[in-house]
Amino acid sequence: MRNNKLLMIPGPIEFDANVLNAMQQKTSSHVAPSFIETFGNCIDMVKKTWLAPKGQVFIVSGSGTLAMDMAASNLVEQGDNVLVISTGYFGERFENILQRYGAKTTILKAEIGNIVSLETIEKELQTKNYKLLTFTHVDTSTGVMVDPKQIAALAQKYNVLSILDGVCSVAGEEIQQENWGIDVVLTASQKAVGVPPGLALLVASEKAMNSFHNRKTLVSNYYADWTNWLPIMKAYEERRPSYFGTPPVNLIVALEVSLKNIISEGIDNRFSRHQKLANAFRSAIASLGLKTIATNNDIAANTLSAIYYPEGIDGAAFCALMSDNGVIVAGGLLPDLKTKYFRVGHMGSTDEQDMIAVLSSIEYALNKLNYEFKLGTSIKKFQEFIYKS
Ligand code: PMP
Hints:
Blueprint (H helix, E strand, L loop, with lengths): L5 E2 L9 H7 L9 H18 L5 E6 L2 H12 L5 E6 L2 H12 L3 E6 L8 H8 L6 E5 L1 E2 L4 E2 L2 H10 L3 E5 L11 H4 L3 E5 L10 E6 L1 H8 L12 H12 L11 H17 L1 H21 L16 E5 L6 H10 L2 E2 L1 E2 L9 E5 L6 H17 L8 H12 L1
Helix pairs in contact: 1-10, 2-10, 3-4, 5-6, 10-11, 11-14, 12-13, 13-14
């Protein structure tokens, strides 16, 4: 039997063949000249992908949660006021992490499927002296997307550091870190960056680095401490050997390939490709009478969609049927709604054919579960959107 099911969850995603092939190369020393060059190239290309030419890059073995941990542990000191803007599960995770490092957090929680208004954020920023704010670009639990440009502008207005959880957005949704003045943009390899899980990636602004250098207390997380990683990143950037913790050599080799793919596509082309596919997919889903958790198109992510099952459809049976039909999607993540919706990732190198396969599989499962609709409806809608616009 062929084992080629399409992995359409919001990370890990389907990876490009040249990225997977790169993973299989013989592992070199982490101080081999060719590896030093590869790591240095990754740092240069991360800056291009993040649109942060002056940013301080950190590439460390770990997942996205480590990138969050790194931002929090290096920038927070005991008693600092931190504002958490939450659009779902991962906003709440950020609050937990920040509290571990002694932050006094205030969390603004959006209603499910919605965002926190700029007025609400601004009003809160006026109430006390915040050191930093965190926000999730795309919350993977809801498929809701916020506007980082406007939130970062507010942070700047009140002289507050801004930290963007871009785990489900970097290299898929538009982010202009330097132009928009975002102090930290962090992500993980397994999503739109297009590399198997295992890398935490983070870019910090000069302002964030100054704040770190001005700390009065030691960073209480040894592994995440930038004091340990800064000399390593500087060395690789200057193409010199160095060591703190052994880097995941094969993943870094794969990262170089994926970042080259991203840059050769063109970052703006990549953003608009994600947008077009997502819009087409949402219109196709709507044509079947299905609804997304995101309450309107302007705040719906382009990297994934969170979709309610129609009334009367058993979610577990639906996902199992999709899998039998060759497409793997993810179930719900929000504890209260877990059984009410599913999630489809559409990021990285996902293309039109993948999305047609997803729609075909959704129709297969709905049809088997006796949902009333005309077969082919969503595929027709998708094709009209893609081929006629
Ligand atoms: N933030 C967001 C928005 C995410 O989607 C995820 C992972 N789904 C994380 C943080 C945590 O990343 P990881 O699972 O790689 O630790």
